[in-house]
Amino acid sequence: MNGSVNSEQNDDIGSLFLTFKDNKKLDIRAQQRTYDGAYTRASIATLSFALLITKLFSKSFLPIGILYCVYGSIIYIIGMTRSNHMNAFLLGDDKLYYKTSGNTVLLMGLVSLISYIILLTLVLRID
């Protein structure tokens, strides 16, 4: 039953997309390339690297693989949160206003900094 609801919702979004003007279509495509594309690609690459580390190296590298797994998951969550906010804004929810990516960039920078500090300590502790 949920599958039919999702397909109906996707059909509504698809038909809604056809009614937009060209400028709005360009904005939606740019949003999809950025949030649905770049954040997803970055998280998949990070998760793949985590899998590579955990499978190819010794068990002493397992904490590093787990760190990259958590880091990739956080990237994906941040990207999907930002994407959902932009979808609601672009599809005309009047309660929302356009919010720049400044907070998202600061959050990603903070998460990256913390991850790299933890990575450095883990690498220095390997025997």
Descriptive labels:
about 130 residues; mainly alpha; 4 helices; elongated; disordered N terminus
Regions with little confidence, pLDDT below 50 for 5+ residues: 1-7
Computed structural class: mainly alpha
Kindly report the average pLDDT value. 78
What count of helical segments does DSSP give?
4
Count of DSSP strands: 0
Transmembrane segments: 61-81, 101-124
Organism: Wickerhamomyces mucosus
Keywords: Membrane, Transmembrane, Transmembrane helix
Protein name: DUF202 domain-containing protein
How does this model look, in words?
There is one protein chain. The model is unreliable at 1-7 (pLDDT under 50). The protein is 83% helix and 0% strand. It has helices at residues 2-19, 22-56, 62-90, 102-125. Helix 2 (22-56) runs antiparallel to helix 3 (62-90) and helix 3 packs antiparallel against helix 4. The longest helix has 35 residues, at 22-56. The chain is elongated and about 60 Å long. The protein contains four helices and no strands. With 127 residues, the protein is an all-alpha fold. It has one domain (2-125). This is DUF202 domain-containing protein. Keywords: Membrane, Transmembrane, Transmembrane helix. It comes from Wickerhamomyces mucosus.
